[in-house]
Amino acid sequence: MELTKDLPTGAQEFPGHIHQTPGGGIVVSSFDGLINWARSNSLWPLTFATSCCGIEMMSVASAKYDFSRFGFEVARATPRQADVIIIAGTIVNKMGPVLKRLYDQMADPKYVIAMGACAISGGPFFYNTYSVVKGADHIIPVDVYIPGCPPRPEALLHALITLQEKIKSGLTREQIREESKA
Amino acid sequence: MYTQTEIIKDTTGIGSEGELVINVGPQHPATHGVLHLVITLNGETIKKIEPHLGYIHRSIEKMCESLNYRQFIYVTSRMDYLSAHINNQACALCVEKGMQIEVPDRAKVIRVLMAELTRIASHELWLGAMAMDLGAFTPFFYTFRERELITDIMEETCGARLTMNYMTPGGVTFDLHEDFQKKVKQFVIQFKEKVTEFEDLVTNNVIFRNRTEGVGIISPADAISYGCSGPVARASGVVSDLRKIAPYDAYDRVEFEEVLDTRGDSFARYIVRVKEMMQSIRIIEQLIDNIPEGDFQAKTKAVLKLPKGEFYSRVETARGELGVYIVSEGGTTPYRIKFRSPGFSNLSALDHMASGSKIGDLMATMGTLDLVIPDIDR
Questions:
Q1: What does the pLDDT look like over B78-96, one tens digit per residue?
Q2: Which of A41, A106, A163, B374 has the most crowded CB, counting CB atoms within 10 A?
Q3: B23 and B37 Cβ atoms separated by less than 8 Å
């Protein structure tokens, strides 16, 4: 059955398939697509800001950039209610185990965004320092990387949309890695 | 290397019978970063607060030892990122003092203008974040509206929104953007209009006043002995504004008042910061039409060499007194650098301020200290 024929322009097509059953009811199948679509539009970030990038993360929450347009506004302070952890700032060796513990406490499915040069590679502190972890991906797996020191708020918005697209595609990290190799 | 280690420490010995030890942080929304407080409670009353640091220790001081006198300023922007300009200014002043570089008038005025804009941006962010700690979300949007105007002005001239790296020994790195004066004037007009909104929303709010008045009191004598500076000291009536006491750059040619309060509680610290924003506006208004013509940078050698000796300079950041102490062996890199950060001393007074009060008051006390943890840990 074609329910999506007379969509107004700009409206999103319903993901998944709709089957008509005898008696007038409909059955929705391909739940993965549906669930991924719903999931990608209500990602709750954990307020995890260690340094400067946290201020730009706050800017994204402010009215000028407003990440609630994409379903991100419910910032949670506890990892148990959060879906995505935005690592905004440097991770030092003392903080490493804390980050790992926070990640472990989050419920599946969980996603990670590494915001800024420090979270990617140690940033401006990568050389000559004894205390900085040279990239958060030494500790937990990262889905999206944002370069910059600190990145602009638009860059964070772009990363959030990239993450949404990644979730909608329904692939695991390993599958995406395999695809990009091929 | 990064194996799972035990985070919760053995708390035996900290608390005795009838006492409860709770950990606030390192992941906590009100610590504004990664501060870890071990709080000993008796019922609901705080007996002791022990701050644990080091969760964002990036070894900036050690790094500076291997960077030359132009490079190390870039790292200090990441120290107290809310007053990045003023950090850079402190370092530039210290190097200039050592090399006896005469800074052109234009650069001095530009530095003061930028520093005051940074101070307003910092105080505005603090106001929004502090109100959020106390459970009010709306002021955050109001304050960020004006703060975005400042970051736009910064971006036009310096190329960055937050970590500007605009100051350099001898002046500033670029000349001002041609729209700078126009944009700043627009900002001043809008800010003056909208500042009454903060007053209506926060200052005269019954809940806010009840939560902050008489909370976290520190006496002038204690403020001095703990080494408090900035708005924390001034809210207790301690005269400590370095822009008045030891004017640097162009502060000796502007008129402004040092904001003082004698109550010493959280509300006084709030009032001091709000009034300080108005004084910053006053400074900007005096200078914006009087930017002297001329060079924006003194002619210096490409490689700077500080003579052998010890050099110290201090500036007033949005949080208090920032000191830069350089020991030079005569080479192109410092032998040792020490930063005296305002947040560290202010945090040390937290135990004194909050002991004996209820745990619910802790966030009002800590919020008005305006802590930036990377500044404390460095």
A1: 888 888 889 998 999 998 8
A2: B374
A3: yes
Domain membership of residue A182 (yes or no) is no
Cβ(B166)–Cβ(B155) below 8 Å: no
Q: Are residues A9 and A71 in the same domain?
A: no
- Tens of pLDDT, residue by residue, chain A (182 residues): 455 556 666 666 666 666 677 777 766 666 677 778 888 888 888 888 888 888 888 888 888 888 888 888 788 888 888 888 988 888 888 888 888 888 998 887 888 999 888 888 887 766 678 888 888 888 898 888 998 888 888 998 999 888 888 888 777 666 777 777 76
- A17 with A86, same domain: the answer is no
Residue type for position B243 = R
Q: Are residues A62 and A28 in the same domain?
A: no
Q: Are A166 and A124 in contact (CB under 8 A)?
A: no
Task: Write down the pTM of the prediction.
Answer: 0.85
CB contact under 8 A, B125 and A55: yes
Indicate whether A33 and A72 sit together in one domain. Answer: no
B78 touches chain A (CB under 8 A): yes
Domain limits for position A34:
1-40
Tell me the domains of chain B and their CATH numbers.
Answer: 60-371 (1.10.645.10)
- From the list B27, B59, B78, the residue facing A102 with the nearest CB is B27
**What is the ipTM score, two decimals?**
0.82
Per the CB < 8 Å rule, is B4 touching A50?
Answer: no
Q: Are residues A18 and A93 in the same domain?
A: no
From the CA of B45, how many Å to the nearest CA of chain A? Answer: 24
Residues B13-25: tens digit of each pLDDT: 555 566 788 888 7
* Mean pLDDT, chain B, integer: 85
Nearest residue on chain A to B147, judged by CA atoms?
Answer: A59
User: DSSP alpha helices (H): ranges in chain A?
Assistant: 31-40, 53-61, 96-105, 116-121, 153-169, 173-181
- For B327, residues 6+ apart whose C-beta sits below 8 A from its C-beta are B309, B310, B334, B335, B336, B337
Q: At a CB cut-off of 8 Å and minimum separation 6, what does A7 contact?
A: A13
> What is the total count of domains within chain A?
2
Residues in chain A with CB shorter than 8 Å from the CB of B57 are 92, 94, 131
Asked if A49 reaches chain B (Cβ–Cβ under 8 Å), the answer is yes
- A27 and A49 belong to one structural domain: no
What pLDDT is stored for residue B11 in this prediction?
A: 54
Whose tokens are 């640091």? That residue is B53
In-domain check, residue A176: no
